[in-house]
Amino acid sequence: MNVSKVTDGIYQLSINIENMLFEGLWEVPDGVSMNSYIVKGEKTAIIDGVCGWDGVPEHFYDLMKQMDVDPKSIEYVILNHMEPDHTGWIEDLRKFHKDFKVLCTKKAAPMLEAFFNHTENITVVGDGDTLDLGGRVLQFAEVPNVHWPDTMVTFDETSGTLFSCDAFGSYGKVDHGNYDDLLEEKDLLFYEEEAKRYYANIVAAFSMFVDKAIAKCATLPIKIIAPGHGVVWRKDPNRIIEDYKRYASYQKGPAKKEVTVIWGSMYGMTEMGVKHAIACLEKEEDIKVNVHRVPQEGWGHILGSAWSSTGLVLAMPTYEYKMFPPMAAVLEEMGKKKVQNRKVFRLGSFGWSGGAQRELDDINTRLKANWEFIEPAEFKGAPTEEDYKNIEAGIKALCQAVREAVK
Ligand SMILES: Cc1cc2nc3c(=O)[nH]c(=O)nc-3n(C[C@H](O)[C@H](O)[C@H](O)COP(=O)(O)O)c2cc1C
Ligand SMILES: [Fe+2]
Ligand SMILES: [Fe+2]
User: Fold this and answer.
1) From ligand 2's centre to the CA of 402, what distance in Å?
2) Which one of 133, 213, 324, 357 has the fewest CB atoms closer than 10 angstroms to its CB?
């Protein structure tokens, strides 16, 4: 657990979580941080949870001492969002510090009871409500569905700090201080990639609500953005706001001048075709190419790449009259995450009947993905010379469609 000072009267407690699947699903090879914040006025508030804290009172007291906070002065626990990555610690806190009041939205309160049987001292807050800590005032704004329906953000009027919870967050552990003013540009670029993947995995499906939340936050005089995961933005909060605006815009496309190849193969027939497709793509120097194999690679990275790509190459064989199952599963999730309006080229091998395209069409229609298909290159068994030519033509057409969409 790291303790650091954000600005006068505000401290951050952060812990890195590694070797786990975030939400039980998303691989995070470089970890993810859980950030919580202590705000000191005459009274003290904790915003979001010190998840990962071991629940031992001595540890808690030691952390409070490092911040020069008298644990008895903690009067308020502000829950911006009920998801257990931010609230799972509340039981531990209750074990030895009973006299705190919880502030959360109307939608969070019943969940707090359902998840943790916590019903005492809850004050429901909503848009425009404030909390006077004595010497500083916190203001609340609801940002529903970023990420759960109950989510809100908290704004400290004195320092201009926005405690944004899941909004403006990123993956990536934060060993070396997670303040943008202390990080080098190469670190910021690393976190930008981590933020995009976090966005694609966690909030992508709610991009419309992200837009609304950004518009709402724009009315606040923000100087610092302090999210629940990842980098704290003290020097250039606008950078992460602009990143998030861009990520939200990728939902409906066009995204970047980028193509993501997602492929799977049982016996190497489709693999022969996709290798040729990748070689053709690599000749198109102005287009960035990402390649992922299913089921070998995690969905987190596949979705991250697809989110910023205007073009997709989907290469898979037919399997029991349908699509190679791990490909169908990941495409289904991409549809649910609203990876929409992409240019798509499909290729793949079959043995006798085919059937992969039918399932792809079904996913596209059912999930309203609105993917625009280039003529597919489907072949029986191994690709012939003619199939290779078709693949080459498909890739050329795809790249052209991507260029036209992005310009
Ligand atoms: C379990 C299994 C199920 C298959 N089901 C079908 C099918 O329903 N229709 C079809 O045309 N080919 C089917 N095939 C044949 C494959 O599509 C064919 O072998 C193809 O070349 C595999 O490409 P790959 O080597 O890239 O995996 C099936 C193959 C396997 C192993
Ligand atoms: Fe969340
Ligand atoms: Fe979270």
Assistant:
1) 33
2) 357
